[in-house]
Amino acid sequence: MNIQISAHNVKELRNKTGAGMMDCKKALQASEGNMEIAIETLRKKGLASADKKSTRIAAEGIIESYIHIGSRIGVLIELNCETDFVARRIEFRKLAKDLAMQIAACQNVSYLSISDIPKNLIDYETRIELAKEDIINKPNKVKDQIVKGRIDKRLKEISLLNQTFIKDPNIIIEDLIKQHIALLGENIKISRFQKFVLGENIENN
């Protein structure tokens, strides 16, 4: 059971580490309110100071490619950082390669983050869920809760940042990027990506 954590303590931890409010709250709950253990936890996860750096301009970087075995799936990704020095670091280049492999492995991923998903797509998915037979006769309040849960799950399935990292199931891609921000000391962001599937847009005659 989670212990109650005051907003004051969450704010204090955020000021000390620069991590996000929810990350700070979770760290304090896990440490049962112990500030030093919470700071250590955030540092191990690479979250400390990552959020502070995430607002800085990242205009350098690389374009990385990945071709899956059999040459039927390919990915291009633009990964940005703040300086050419970091762009040449092996850790940064390995991150870009891992991200490209992640995109190739995730069949449903089409958007970088949930905030990038168009409202008309969310509305469309919502209409489909509301019309499903397994909930059509349920009370409206229950129906709305079920639909919200299903839509939230669906949006995470098509968002890259919400994907579980294929090399470490304990973190998601957003955490992986934050870890590298902390490691390399610069803001890192994915600007764009594109996946190519052989024959995807070719109609058979």
Automatic annotation (TrEMBL):
<protein>
    <recommendedName>
        <fullName>Multifunctional fusion protein</fullName>
    </recommendedName>
</protein>
<dbReference type="InterPro" id="IPR009060">
    <property type="entry name" value="UBA-like_sf"/>
</dbReference>
<keyword id="KW-0648">Protein biosynthesis</keyword>
<keyword id="KW-0934">Plastid</keyword>
<dbReference type="InterPro" id="IPR014039">
    <property type="entry name" value="Transl_elong_EFTs/EF1B_dimer"/>
</dbReference>
<dbReference type="InterPro" id="IPR036402">
    <property type="entry name" value="EF-Ts_dimer_sf"/>
</dbReference>
<dbReference type="GO" id="GO:0005739">
    <property type="term" value="C:mitochondrion"/>
</dbReference>
<comment type="function">
    <text>Associates with the EF-Tu.GDP complex and induces the exchange of GDP to GTP. It remains bound to the aminoacyl-tRNA.EF-Tu.GTP complex up to the GTP hydrolysis stage on the ribosome.</text>
</comment>
<keyword id="KW-0150">Chloroplast</keyword>
<keyword id="KW-0496">Mitochondrion</keyword>
<keyword id="KW-0251">Elongation factor</keyword>
<feature type="domain" description="Translation elongation factor EFTs/EF1B dimerisation">
    <location>
        <begin position="56"/>
        <end position="200"/>
    </location>
</feature>
<dbReference type="Pfam" id="PF00889">
    <property type="entry name" value="EF_TS"/>
</dbReference>
<comment type="similarity">
    <text>Belongs to the EF-Ts family.</text>
</comment>
<dbReference type="GO" id="GO:0003746">
    <property type="term" value="F:translation elongation factor activity"/>
</dbReference>
<dbReference type="InterPro" id="IPR018101">
    <property type="entry name" value="Transl_elong_Ts_CS"/>
</dbReference>
<dbReference type="GO" id="GO:0009507">
    <property type="term" value="C:chloroplast"/>
</dbReference>
<dbReference type="InterPro" id="IPR001816">
    <property type="entry name" value="Transl_elong_EFTs/EF1B"/>
</dbReference>
